Amino acid sequence: MIANIPTDLLRTFVTVVDLGGFTRAAQSLGRTQPAVSLQIRRLEDLLHTKLIRTEGRQVSLTEAGMALSPQARQMLRLNDDIVAHFADQALEGGLRVGMPADFSHNFLVEAISRFALDNPEVRVEVECLVSKDLRDALADDRLDIAVAIAPDDTAPFLVDTATIRPFWAVGETYRGDPRDPLAIVRHPDPCEYATRMRNALRENGRKWHTTLVSRDLSGVQAAVRAGLGASALTPATLTPGMRVARDDEGFPALAPLKIGLFYKHAALSRAGHGLAQHLMYHIGEAGNPAIHKNP
């Protein structure tokens, strides 16, 4: 018979991880420290593995704990989404949300705007940074929610992911010889998109050279439309004047990206859980491959 995992045990586990210790977790959960320790032991007994190491007041995750963390967060998100769906209470308070610059120009800003209109008592502040800086800001409590590229499934505070498949974008009048070195436009390194472009070209034996480097997405888009080169974009960032490049034009497939939703369960308000649910839906919609097709 399959055992059921009580969500209160998972919430205690995630709270210990998020707050960095048993004492702060106990204060947050309104329990005694021995009660929190007992719940962690119950969870470990249920899963037949050690999840948390303790050295003095410092805690760290075992390999099994790191594997459990994102799955526990997903279960808690579903639990909290169900509770929020049936709760007849207005959301309120302030939220600090971070997102990559290439998502700030389209669907996520629109999604946040719709959420703010539906919840006028919620104040949302948005900050755009590169993904690594977003994850660091969340860890340092400078953000409540971050939408960022997930380097792997065990990234700290990762709640859920959606796969987005970047593609090669070129100007709509592009006519290039696949035997020639490819001109590319990109963001500065470190950049997940630039890395995927170079890896794909290298693996397929095609040379390239960079014609423009821009920190701003609009600069990359303008360069692509003007014919300065090709770049890796997503369905949400393909604009009129561009088209999706084809395989037979010498453009190898790009590796997918995992866009992650990051937040600390122990610190997130009801309004934050509501916005997180809203954002995850729109991230998944933006990653739908049916959104873009080759002409």
From TrEMBL:
Q: Is Transcription regulation among this UniProt entry's keywords? A: yes
An example of a Pfam family matching this protein is HTH_1
Known PROSITE patterns for this protein?
A: HTH_LYSR
Q: What are the residue boundaries of the HTH lysR-type domain, all occurrences included? A: 5-62
One GO term in the molecular function aspect is: DNA binding
For the keyword Hydrolase, the answer is no
Q: What is this protein called?
A: LysR family transcriptional regulator
